[in-house]
Amino acid sequence: MGISYLQAIVTGLIQGITELFPVSSLGHAVLVPAWIGGSWSRFTTDPNSPYLTITIALHLASALALLLVFRNRWIDLASAGFNSLRRRPSIESTVFWRIVIATLPVATLGFIFEKSLRELFSKPFASACFLTINGGLLIVAEKRSRSSRETESIMSENQHIAERVSIGGAIGIGFAQSFALFAGVSRFGISMSAGLLRGLKHSTASDFAFLLALPVILGASIAKLPDLFLAQNSHMAGPILAGSFVSFLATYASITFLVRWFKTRTLYPFAMYCFAIGVISIIRFA
């Protein structure tokens, strides 16, 4: 079973847009083929489907786009983090080690449970249910957010993260990210929601969620990267490259859009989208 250029490009576009929008890329990866039907529906039902291999490449492309956008930030944070092993800790080093701490729970749980959870819940009806739940989580986070507008205006992103996200808070956010193992729950959405509940302003919560996304997406892609180079996948090299290129561009564009969006706006529109698509899909696949 293979994949056409059109299918790879459309899949790359969906992946690039939804990976960092708080609407669950994995949920869309399950629901979109099911809605289209025909040969598309086999991507998630045929045991010989190349879909997983394709998504590895697309996620790697998204990770590279994320790294490109935040490259200077990562250089500063990583340098400060490793220098803090020999010198006095700084605000930047605190943020770096909070990211490391928050990555450990989701990396551990993902390694242990990812395969079984995806096989169990990567059905259209289950994904529709979790997408609806995702919308509810976003609304709850918005309603319970207690960030201070006065504090927001005078603190930098790094200062706000260092002050509001403790070691315990970072661990909690890391476990919250693990819910994205359920197809339909957005990793970015739940990370940002957890940040809001810790008292971060919207722009800082989204900034922290972007930083948290890179190690998880990049690590998961690299762990499965050898599958791309298996002999049985060589005939898909062209479509995979095309889809990856589209995924890279779409991810870059979506990050640029979201950075501006969360400077002044909220998660509510994304929550409404998740509710609408989730409920319609529940009716369709029940």
Write the layout of secondary structure elements.
Blueprint: H1 5-18, H2 25-36, H3 51-69, H4 71-83, H5 91-121, H6 124-144, H7 149-154, H8 157-164, H9 167-177, H10 187-197, H11 202-224, H12 237-264, H13 268-285
Helix pairs in contact: 1-2, 1-3, 1-12, 2-6, 3-11, 3-12, 4-5, 5-8, 5-9, 5-11, 6-10, 6-13, 8-11, 9-10, 10-11, 11-12
What gross morphology would you assign?
globular
Order of helices and strands: HHHHHHHHHHHHH
Low-confidence stretches: 147-151
Q: What is the overall number of helices?
A: 13
Tell me what portion of residues adopts beta-strand conformation. Answer: under 5%
N- and C-termini, Cα separation: 28 Å
The proportion of residues forming helix, as a percent range, comes to: over 70%
In total, how many beta strands? 0
Our Rg estimate from Cα atoms comes to 19 Å
Q: What integer is the average pLDDT?
A: 89
Structure notes:
With 286 residues, the protein is mostly helical. The chain has one domain. The protein is globular. The chain starts with a helix and ends with a helix.
Précis, in short:
This protein has 13 helices and no strands. With 286 residues, it is mainly alpha-helical. Helix 1 runs parallel beside helix 12 (237-264), helix 5 crosses helix 8 and helix 10 (187-197) runs antiparallel to helix 11 (202-224).
